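Sequence in, structure out. Go.
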Amino acid sequence: MLRQPLLMLSRSGRVKDLVTSMPVSSGIVSRYVPGDTTDEAVDVVEQIVGSGRLATLDFLGEDTLDAAQATATVDAYLDLLKALAERGLAHGAEVSVKLSAVGQALHGEGQDSGERIALENARTICRAARNAGTTVTLDMEDHTTTDSTLRVLRELRKDFPETGAVLQAYLRRTETDCRDLASQGSRVRLCKGAYNEPEDVAFQSRLDVDRSYVRCLKVLMKGQGYPMVATHDPRMVEIADALAERHHRAKGSWEYQMLFGIRPHEQARLAAAGHPVRVYVPYGQEWYGYLMRRLAERPSNLAFFLRSLVSKN
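Output:
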């Protein structure tokens, strides 16, 4: 019952201003977002890699409508990639990029269109990632950006075939997209989806989303690509393992992905069993939208969050 209202609030500028200006306990934010700065994020990655897991880092920000802010986001990723290389962590950490954070939502036409600007900015990040010895995955956002994001992905893969894709199982189109992207070497992260979507484009019930996730997972595991199974659901973890075994996939030919701060003991268990486990590590000051989507996924966390709004720091 709380999921839809929370997802709507994640896009509310008025509520964002209210929440981010209140004395929110650092505990609720740091539970999901481990730091504001590059140094803080890289320190966390060092701990993750040292524990035998992998990482993907997301510099928080989305729906950028200012070209200077898009450029600043690119610069933040370049600084991050440089830091990862200097600390010897690039082998165990990649970056995740939201195209709306690097210009996709900017208004313009032709060479000045938001999609074109986002493509060139993403190309800059991909080049820096390759030079650092790592990769980029393009995060997926709400359904209105899906076609644009996949077009950018196709262009990037001409020069950077290692670029990862993200598909969201709650979208009705995703099984077809999985078939299109399950080619040799194609890195595809499959998640359930965390945006507020209309019924005509997205499954609404948890059961229907779960069924879609399994159908999509079957396509990816059967294909020739590299599935990245983004889930915290114990049933999906078991199903992924069973499908990998059915299709004779060796460990290392696919991976689990989980969010920072969620099911850390399960992450450790899977890694100890020899499975690649990648932790999604968001960082930066633009944490509001990300946090609200995490609360929508697990509304039981809402009481903890509300208590933190009135607690002392």
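Check: The beta strands are 54-59, 93-98, 136-139, 165-168, 187-191, 226-230, 255-259, 277-283. The chain has a mean pLDDT of 88.
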